[in-house]
Amino acid sequence: MSPEAPETRSSAVLTSPSTRELAPVPLLDLGREFSAIHVEVMEAIEAVLSTQKYILGPAVDAFEREAEAALGVKHALGCASGTDALWLALAALEIGPGHAVVSTPFSFFATVSSVLRAGAQPLLADIDPLTYNLCPEATREAIAAHAASGAATKVKGIQPVHLYGQCADMDGFQALADEFGVKLVEDAAQAWGASWTYANGTTKLAGGLGDAAAFSFYPTKNLSAMGDAGMATTNDDVTAERLHMLRAHGMRKRYYHDEVGWNCRLDSVQAAVLSIKLRRVEAGNERRREIAALYGRLFREAGLAAPAGSWDIADGIVLPHTDPRARHVFHQYVVRVSDREQLREHLSQLKIGSEIFYPLPLHLQSSLAHLGYREGQFPVAEQAAKEVLALPIYPELRDAEAATVVEAIRRFYR
Q: Which segments does the entry list as coiled coil (predicted)?
């Protein structure tokens, strides 16, 4: 799998008579989606402007009811961002000072910053090498080690992240929640429409798998706003009431502040846009699965793919692994590769989009040094951070463009 030296490889790509020029492939092209829904979106925005109800209001109420029906949850509350949704979920469950929350070092920064914002202590555990999700066994070890240390904080929550659009092992985490009496808070920022089938045969969608959950509608997400937006969900009436109160400065009655909440309300324009896109998201998720399957077939046909179930890049390009209990929505299509930086440069020269989610684990971020973790403490997460590479995937991506991406990578390695 070792490529040629960069200067030799570049020359071969440019001069080989058998090499055809490859068309550019963007990592994401939001314009394609907008062109299909332009009229609906503009009409919806104009309708909101005509009501002069710009914060919460009828458009937000309507989207929340639609989201509840789509997710199969009792309560869905729109808020200003996915980061706010994470904090709201934790705070509504009364997780705060004196508490610790177990989560993953391999995620976006908001996963841990939301715990800190709630006043709790982030307690990290390593990830599963195949799915990159928080590992239940490592979580159990982290809880045991925390208890044995005599730490002042008590573990009150587990925050699994459904990374890249695949649910974490919710059988394992529910067992831990039951055993230790802790709350489950789903970071479902990347997982709208993903689902998990439990050992008893019950299937539930992300957002209804824990005590509370958080979604992001950042413009790159499967269900996306045209700006920042998020949502917190729960099936518990008491938690829902607290979500309502906390997202509006801790008010139950106007200008009477029962707690120090936050201003993290969803605006009506974003809700109106999300209502339109919600009608398309399931078809979009199905198309993402089709593209993922196409990528897998093309990589295998090119002789580049590692055997199924491998996580060692010495075996070839490690393709995404789907847990048979999960229904993946492929928010990202992430492979593991050797010589990642050289490959990215090669793709960049060919105008093929790629991205790294995430290049530095959270426990090694300078702003989180006070947590006391050190390099080498979470080896699986650290190795993944050095090898993962996200390739273009979105519903409007054409089959020929996916083939171009694979061909570009084939040229790097062959």
A: none
